[in-house]
Automatic annotation (TrEMBL):
Any single biological process term in GO: tetrahydrofolate biosynthetic process
Active-site residue list: 947
Protein purpose: Bifunctional enzyme. Involved in de novo dTMP biosynthesis. Key enzyme in folate metabolism. Can play two different roles depending on the source of dihydrofolate: de novo synthesis of tetrahydrofolate or recycling of the dihydrofolate released as one of the end products of the TS catalyzed reaction. Catalyzes an essential reaction for de novo glycine and purine synthesis, DNA precursor synthesis, and for the conversion of dUMP to dTMP.
Species the sequence originates in: Musa troglodytarum
Signal peptide (from-to): none
CDD domains noted in UniProt: DHFR, PLPDE_III_DapDC, TS_Pyrimidine_HMase
Identification of the protein by name: Thymidylate synthase
Length: 1065
């Protein structure tokens, strides 16, 4: 529906509340995401006679000189004793909205506050940059942007939110003492001003500039050591503060800026003194110092344009009528200094723009007395408004309605329901004794209240409303209040999962008391309200709130993985029992025939395996959490008594024995089955305190768990040495799981073994038929497409061992630290000398997954490259495509005279490849099994001298390994092909020689990144690897010359999308 309209009813009649735009509500059942941000409008009809004159005049009065006036409060008491917001009674709002506490803003007050700064800055070149940290509500940001405001940011997500709100990036300033490289890259790309805070900050800014190929405008944040005379927690400009650089280091930074003048452009200086400042002469003291620094810096040839004096102007939190500095007072203090140097002034208000525009509205739960202390207990708390608890800050508190007749005033502490003694909103306040359920507001709650709110004690984040012209626009939203499919939310990333709960409930309200209920029109919703509750959970913890037993409201639960992918949906109607289960990972050591034990014990002694087990099952990303290990009773009894329970983990023992009583022991739980254990761990409190769940044995439990749908990963110690066992488990289902990581073979106590991590990539081993546009598609055509796209559920120590990270880390290192060098193409490179990577060919094939890889990446440019290169070296008589005596010719005809690509060279020269295969078969310990493409006498005949010059082969334990030396390696285009091609050659030779593939070692001389590849490679670095594919070859082929393309199949290759990179020619 369109925006809400006032319901027609006689003046002075009872008010009727109507939710319009109801079509924006989620349909039933719960919608599939990504969802859209929903705006709802609540229209409140108020007759003119209902607005008391005092409140009406206060709301209507507009200060003719806003800049000269102090910040006035938009909340005021009317002659009837009720509290009003711009003429609307707050108590009426409380009756209309779905719940309390809630934040209530005045949109008009936000406008007035900004206009005060705008008028104060007339005659100056200026930027007003709103400090988003003060309040990050999206609608407020969009409103300020529409007024002409810029933005000040202190994190990457604040930057993304500012962009989402439409702020001009060139009017944004990126502050902070710990800015991340990936966030600086975004800032550099968008042209945001960046404040330099430290040496490493400058280094990261330079790196970001090189990544995007743009100069970054920067300001030096100089710490002036001026005492702002405020609470030490909000003082930022003294010499002991963590922010900024001291003047004695200034010259070092200026020299560094000169050194990196192609990456950064020094355009100004910045200082920030603190917050809640009440004396403008403090700003002048700092500005004088900054102007002196500007003079010194300009004397060294820098063209400085900007002076940023920060923000921090205080407000009258006490409502005492104190005369505090206004925006005009602040600007006039520095106006002459700014004009004398022809500078653009940047001001960063946050608190003074937004604090006095809002109240936190609460309901009184009750009144109590303990000893000599009186308490008013409200439904709001430190979770919604933490300033009093954090800083001991004072904020004015009052009731929204007149006191009851004969009620006495007393001294109260106003406290909330959070289970902390520090949970107070105000202490020693003189207030009338309130009745249960009346409203109580905490004033000046617009800044550093909602933006610092938490979900402590699982309190729901309060809704936010704002008023304008006696009506209310309601914005029910999560913390950022942006669409779930926006770039801002998608990049909250790093392995997070979000869980949203949608609850529809009937309002506890007697509608007959407020008038006749009009028939509902289509799209309207009466009697109901809807609320969103979002919890951000790090890692792979699957959060479910409780067990949903005997729910009294109709509820829908929808879990999201990584903000976008719908992986689980469940619904209930009426009273229902939900049985959510935790997913888990299996940790097991087994022989090649999957034997795991003999006579109830491990048949082998491998201290390294025990150490690996401990690391995997104990390590957490959140130090406040721990993992759980699930085991059968016999496994528990096999653990030496002195080691029971396994320390640092919650031990869950599965047993149906009534005589097995260990439940009273610390860190131990007993469950009757695996399913009941997983259900228990999915419920509170374990869903919040347990990060990962591992199933560790024994045989019966593992047979049930190993390939079950709830198993996310399998950590297998693969025992290659044969042992006699009497307990076995099924093999890993390779149609469902793929190797993520496999260690190189280890030897301990004469036992050869390796560690292998398998990850689930499919939902089940039986692939159903797929449909496309209504047509059935055979599952074989989609067998390489993974159902699981991200694998952050793995322990970090396993996740980061994926071999593709060796390549990605090399790329990242060269982009960040590589030396600038020229090259034959004139493109320019970042280079590093002497690099090595190593790949395990035993279980998977190293074809990169962070971008689509195929021959097409090279074919498109190869023809042009060959023609231009042949012309440059004088080989103009050659036809297109004739490279000369390069790789294949040297491998099979080394030393023969080359004429052209059509000549017959049979029997000519030395066949290196055949000689190597013969040595591998007949003399595998030979140290001269070298395949060389470097023939100095033929270099002048080649279009390009060989980059991958020679390879050496090595045989050990029935496995063939290869090390290739490459003199020059293009990390973006060439190296992925080089890794794959020599790995393939190793596998082919191994099969011909009746060996198994071993290792491929890639040694590089000049490893480089072309300047034109930096940005696409930076895009590739943002991708997360997927499991490598498995190479299958025709086992009947035993002749190296007999292979054809149909003899090869890659199973499970599901890379990210193609990333365009132009070949440097």
């Amino acid at each position: 529906m369109a925006a809400a309209q006032l319901l027609s009813c006689p003046s002075g009649s009872p008010q009727i509340y109507r939710i319009a735009n109801a079509s924006a509500f989620p349909p039933k059942p719960f919608p599939r995401f990504p969802a859209r941000f929903r705006s709802r409008t609540l229209t409140l009809q108020t007759s003119a006679s209902r607005i008391p004159p005092a409140a009406a005049s206060s709301a209507a009065a507009a200060a003719p000189a806003a800049a000269a006036a102090g910040f006035r409060h938009c909340f005021s008491k009317g002659e009837d004793g009720f509290l009003y917001c711009e003429g609307v009674r707050v108590e009426d709002v409380m009756e209309a909205v779905e719940r309390s506490p809630f934040y209530l803003y005045s949109k008009d007050q936000i406008t007035r506050n900004f206009e005060a700064y705008k008028e104060a800055l007339e005659g100056l070149k200026s930027v007003v940059g709103y400090a988003i940290k003060a309040n990050n509500n999206l609608k407020i940001l969009e409103h300020l942007k529409g007024l002409g405001c810029g933005a000040v940011l202190v994190s990457g997500n604040e930057l993304r939110l500012a962009l989402r709100a439409g702020f001009d990036p060139t009017r944004c300033i990126f502050n902070g003492n710990g800015k991340l490289l990936e966030d600086l890259v975004l800032a550099a790309e968008k042209g945001v001003f960046v404040n330099v805070d430290s040496e490493f900050d400058l280094e990261n800014i330079v790196t970001a500039a090189r990544v995007v190929g743009k100069r970054v405008p920067v300001l030096l944040r100089i710490n002036p050591d001026v005492d702002p005379q405020v609470h030490p927690y909000v003082a930022t400009g003294n010499k002991t503060s963590k922010f900024g650089i001291r003047n004695e280091k200034l010259q070092w930074f200026l020299d560094a800026v000169k050194k990196h003048s192609s990456e950064i452009d020094l355009v100004g200086v910045h200082c920030h003194l603190g917050s809640t400042i009440t004396k403008v002469d403090i700003f002048r003291d700092a500005a004088i110092l900054m102007v002196n620094f500007i003079d010194q810096i300009r004397a060294q040839g820098f063209q400085l344009e900007y002076l940023n004096i920060g923000g921090g102007l205080g407000i009258d939190y006490h409502h005492s009528g104190a005369v505090l500095p206004t925006p005009l007072d602040l600007v006039n203090t520095v106006r002459e200094l700014v004009l004398s140097r022809d500078l653009t002034l940047i001001i960063e208000p946050g608190r003074s723009l937004i604090a006095n525009t809002c109240c936190l509205v609460n309901r009184v739960t009750g009144v109590k007395t303990n000893g000599t202390k009186n308490f008013i207990v409200i439904d709001g708390s430190m979770a919604e408004l933490i300033r009093p608890s954090l800083y001991g800050a004072y904020q004015h508190i009052e009731l929204v309605s007149p006191p009851l007749p004969n009620s006495e005033s007393s001294t109260f502490d106003v406290v909330g329901p959070v289970c902390e003694s520090a949970d107070f909103l105000g202490k020693d306040r003189e207030l009338p004794t309130p009745a249960k359920g009346v409203g109580l507001v905490v004033h000046d709650a617009g800044a550093y209240c909602m933006s610092m709110a938490s979900t402590y004690n699982l309190k729901m984040r309060p809704p936010e409303y704002w008023s304008f012209k006696h009506a209310f626009s309601i914005y029910m939203c999560s913390k950022l209040a942006v669409p779930l499919d926006s770039p801002c939310v998608r990049q909250l990333g790093g392995g997070r999962r979000w869980f949203f709960f949608f609850v529809e409930s009937t309002l506890e309200r007697n509608w007959n008391a407020v008038g006749l209920l009009h028939p509902a029109e289509r799209g309207d919703i009466y009697l109901t309200r809807s609320s969103w509750f979002g919890l951000d959970v790090l890692g792979s913890c699957q959060l479910e709130i409780g067990a949903y037993a005997k729910v009294t409201r109709r509820s829908y639960c929808h879990r999201l993985a990584n903000m976008a992918t719908d992986i689980y949906q469940n619904g209930s109607n009426g009273n229902a029992q939900h049985d959510p289960q935790r997913t888990y990972q299996v940790v097991v050591a087994a022989t090649r025939d999957m034997g795991i034990g003999k006579d109830g014990n491990l048949p082998w002694k491998l201290p390294s395996d025990l150490k690996f087990f401990k690391e995997v099952t104990m390590t957490t990303s959140d130090p406040s959490k721990r993992n759980a290990v699930i085991m059968g009773r016999k496994t528990w009894e096999s653990i030496p008594p002195q080691n029971r329970p396994l320390p640092g983990r919650l031990n869950v023992v599965l047993t149906r024995s009534g005589s097995f009583d260990i439940a009273t022991a610390e860190n131990i739980l007993m469950c009757g089955s695996l399913n009941s254990a997983l259900q228990l761990l999915a419920a509170t409190p374990y869903c919040l305190s347990i990060e990962r769940v591992f199933v560790i044995g024994g045989g019966q439990v593992l047979r049930e768990a190993l390939n079950a749908p709830g198993c996310e990963a399998i950590h297998l110690t693969d025992i290659e040495t044969s042992f006699q066992c009497d307990t076995f488990i099924p093999p890993v289902d390779c149609s469902v799981f793929r190797p993520w990581y496999s260690s190189f073979p280890l030897l301990e106590n004469s036992i050869r073994y390796s560690f292998v991590a398998y990850v689930r990539v499919q939902s089940s081993g039986t692939e159903p038929h797929a449909t496309h546009d209504g047509e059935v598609v055979d599952s074989k055509s989609i067998k390489n497409k993974f159902k699981v796209e991200r694998f952050v559920f793995l322990p970090k120590l396993i996740y980061e061992r994926h071999e593709e990270y060796a390549y990605l880390r090399l790329v990242k290192d060269i982009i960040a630290n590589g030396a600038k060098k020229n090259d034959r193409t004139g493109t320019g490179t970042l280079s590093k000398f002497g690099c090595q990577t190593r790949f395990n060919l035993r279980r998977s094939f190293p074809l990169l997954t962070t971008k689509f890889f195929g021959e097409v990446l090279l074919k498109n440019s190869c023809g042009l490259l060959v023609v231009q290169q042949m012309q440059s070296v004088g080989l103009t008589h050659r036809e297109e495509g004739d490279l000369g005596p390069v790789y294949g010719f040297q491998w099979r005809h080394f030393g023969a005279e080359y004429t052209d690509m059509h000549a017959d060279y049979t029997g000519k020269g030395f066949d290196q490849l055949s000689a190597i295969i013969d040595k591998i078969k007949n003399d595998p310990d030979d140290r001269r099994m070298i395949l060389s493409a470097w023939n100095p006498s033929d270099l002048k005949k080649m279009a390009l001298p060989p980059c991958h010059m020679f390879a050496q082969f090595y045989v050990e334990n029935g496995e063939l390994s290869c090390q290739m030396y490459q003199r020059s390696a293009d990390l973006g285009l060439g190296v992925p092909f080089n890794i794959a091609s020599y790995s393939l050659l190793t596998c082919m030779i191994a099969q011909v020689c009746d060996l198994l593939p071993g290792d491929f070692v890639h040694a590089i001389g000049d490893a480089h990144v072309y300047s034109t590849h930096v940005r696409p490679l930076e895009e590739q670095l943002q991708k997360q690897p997927k499991p490598f594919p498995v190479l299958k070859m025709n086992p009947l082929k035993k002749d190296i010359d007999s292979f054809v393309a149909s003899d090869f199949e890659l199973v499970g290759y599901d890379p990210h999308n193609k990333i365009e990179m132009k070949m440097a020619i």
